[in-house]
Amino acid sequence: MLLNLTWAQKNIDQTIKILIKITLLSSSTFYTTTVLAQNISYAQAEQSVLTDSYSTQANLALQQASKLEAEAVKGLGLPRVDLNVRAYAFHNEVDIPLDSFKNNLEQTLSQGINDRINQENLPSGIADPLKQGLNQTIHSGVGLFPDSANVILEDQVIRPTVSVLMPLYTGGMTSSAKEVASIKAQRSQLNTQQQQDIQRFELIQAYFNAQLQKQLLDSSRFNFDAMQTHYNNALKLENQGFISKGQRMQFEVAKNNAERSYQNAEASLRSSLFQLNNLLQSSQITELSTPLFVNSIKSQSLSTLLKTYQDQSSLIRKMQMDTQLANANVKAQNAAKKPNLFAFGEYSLDEKQNWIVGVVARYNLFSGVDKNKNIQAAELQRYASELMTERSKQEIENIIYKSYSEVTTAQQSHQLLQQNMKAAQESLRIQTLSFKEDMGTATQVIDAQNTLSGLKSEMALNAYKYVMSLATLLQSHGSINQFQSYVNQAQTYYIR
Asked: Residue 382 pLDDT more than 60?
C-alpha cells in the first residue's frame, strides 16, 4: 500500500510540474487576514483563496494598472496644447568697425560740396581753392570719428504663449500604440483568470491531500484498534492455554507495527493541515467538510475536451495575444521608417499678440539605428510566438489525454476496490472465527486484517488520485472553475 501511495504521489507531482512549466506566474502584495472557522468546505476555501490571497490582490492591481494605461493613450492623435512662459534677460557687447562708414561719409560729403560749387559756375581760380579747403575740412572732421564703436545691448523679457501641435500623419505609430495598450489590458484580464485557476489547483491539491491524510489516519487507527483487540484476545487465549506464546507474540508485533503506522499518519495529517492553513492565511482550520469523491459518470468526452480547450484555456488565449502584441510591434517598427507630418501654431499672450501657424514634415535620414533590422527582429519574434503557441497546444493535449485516462482508470479501480472491500471484510470474519476454533493461524488473521486496512487506505488514495487527475484535466482544459460542480454531481461516491 505504501508503495502504491508513493508511486501515485510521484505521478501527481510530475503532472503538476508539467502544468507549472507551461504556465506563467508571479507576485506579492498586501492582504487582509481572514479568520476562518475551524470547519470549512471546499467551496468556502475556494472563495477565501480567490479573494484574500497575495496573488489575487497583486493580479487585480496589475489588471487595474493595465486598464488605466489603455485609457491613458485613448487621446493619442488629438492636438497637443501647451501653455509656455519664456522669461529671459540678456547683455551683449559688440564692437562695430567704422572705417567703411567714415570713408563713405567723407566721399558723400565731398561729392556733395563739389557738385554744389560746380553749379555756381565760379571761376576756377576761386572754385578750386574753395573745393580744396572744404574737402580738407570734411576730411579733418570725419577723422575725428573713432575707427570702431562699442555697442551694449540689454533687455529683460517675459513672454507667455499658447502652442498647439497636431499630428496629421505618423505612419501608423499612433494606432499601433493604442492597439498595444488595448491588447495588454485584455491580456492582463486573462492573466488574472490564469492565476485564479492556478490557485484553484493548488487549493484542490492541499485541501484533498489533507482529506487523504485524514482517511489514512482513520485507516491506521482502525487497523491499530483491530490489532489491539486481536492482541487482547490472543493474550486471553494464551492464558487459557489455547495458543502458544509464539502465536501471541505475532499479534503483539502486528499491534506495534500498526501503532507505528498510526503515529506516522498523525504526523502526515498535521503537516497537510499546516500547508492548507498556510495557503488560506489561517491557523484555525482543523476540520474539512468536503470529502474525497469519485464520480461515477463522465460529463464530457475526450474528443470534446480536445476540440474545445483552445477557447477555454487562458494560457492559450494569452499566448495568442502575445502573437497579437508581436504583430503590433511589427507595425510600429514599419511606422518608424515613414515620415511624420504635424500642424503647429503659437499665439503670444502679451500685449503684442504675435502668432505663428504652419506645417512641419519630418523624415529621418539617419539615426544610427538600422530600422530594417528592427523590422526583421519583430517579424521573427512574431514567428517565434506562433510556434510557442503551437508547442503549448501539443503539451496541453498530451496532458488532457493522460489525465483523462487517469480519471477513467481511477473510476474503474474504485468499482473493483468496492468489490475487494466486501471480500476482505468477509475474509477477516472467516479467519478470525477459524482462529478462535483452532482451525486457522495468527498469520492468517493478521494478513486478513492488514488487507482490509490496506484496502481502506487504497480506496482513499485512489479517490485522491481521481480528484487530482480531474483537477489536472480541468486545469489543462481551462475549466477548473467548474470543479465545484463535480463535487456535487449526482452518482458520486464519497470517501468518509
From this structure: yes
